[in-house]
Amino acid sequence: MRPEVHAEMAAVQQRHWWFVARRRVLARVIDALALPPQAQLLDAGCGSGGNLAMLASRGCLQAMEIDDGARQAAAALGICPVHAGALPDAWPFADARFDLVCLLDVLEHIDDDVAALRRIGQQLRPGGRVLVTVPAYAWMWSAHDEAHEHRRRYSATALRQVAHAAGLDVQRLGYFNSLLFPLIALARLVGRGRAQAPQSDAALPAPAVNAALQSLFALERHVVPHALFPFGTSVLAVLKASAR
Q1: Helices (H), 90-237
Q2: Domain tally, the chain
Q3: Confidence check: pLDDT of 89 > 80
């Protein structure tokens, strides 16, 4: 991800509707996993640390980030240790085992997504899970994906295939950010008809718009922990080590 995009996200991640509402949804998803006491958690690809406080309240947290500037920003929050590292090979946790590894909009940045998930599967404790979120649908590719240096977007079927190739079983799989899907999809399709330079969608909208979008997206926290949607702008998966 470009340094200026990391900086933009760091500036808005505690206020922007998408970041705030997504944390509220994912917090409920994690709570529904019923993690063990003193669970060992890893935020693999934590960026500038927007999710660290939420995750640290649910277990003993460590984090990893490849970008120097984002890692320094995350470490400066003082929430948990933030290590330099990257998937699949620059992995600083050879002796660690985790109850939950979170890959929150990370896998789409990695060239070898199968190898990345295989590495994480090797680091799970018995009963450990991997929580993955990725952007949905190749046809929604836009200037935002270019700015964020995504390698791909996923369907639920594609993410299942990657998980199985990595030796992981799928416990839950589906879509979220679905209530706003028609609006976002229309904006992406309209944008595809225009020549656009790479540009992030992380700009903060007007306060009233930001509050309305946050409230609508956050409503999904009452649904997603129990049932995922058949469509949405993001794919969510809960994976576990294969029993095969």
Answers
A1: 113-122, 143-147, 156-165, 181-192, 207-218
A2: 1
A3: yes
The 3-state DSSP composition of the chain as helix, strand, coil percent (nearest 5) reads 40, 20, 40
**Predicted model pTM:** 0.93
Q: Please answer whether residues 166 and 24 qualify as being in contact, where contact means their C-beta atoms are separated by less than 8 angstroms.
A: no
Q: Inter-axis angle of helices 113-122 and 156-165, to 10 degrees?
A: 60
Predicted confidence at residue 165, as pLDDT, reads 97
For residue 193, the model assigns a pLDDT of: 56
The one-letter amino acid code at 232 reads G
pLDDT tens for 179-213 read 999 999 998 887 665 545 556 667 889 999 999 99
SS3 180: coil
Q: Beta-carbon neighbour count of residue 7 at 10 Å?
A: 13
Domain of residue 96, CATH code: 3.40.50.150
Helix (H, G, I), strand (E, B) or coil at 107: helix
Contact 205, 184 (CB under 8 A): no
Contact 142, 202 (CB under 8 A): no
Tell me if 130 sits within 8 A of 238, measured CB to CB.
yes
Domain that holds residue 96: 3-241
Quote the CA–CA distance of 47 and 6 in Å, as a whole number. 7
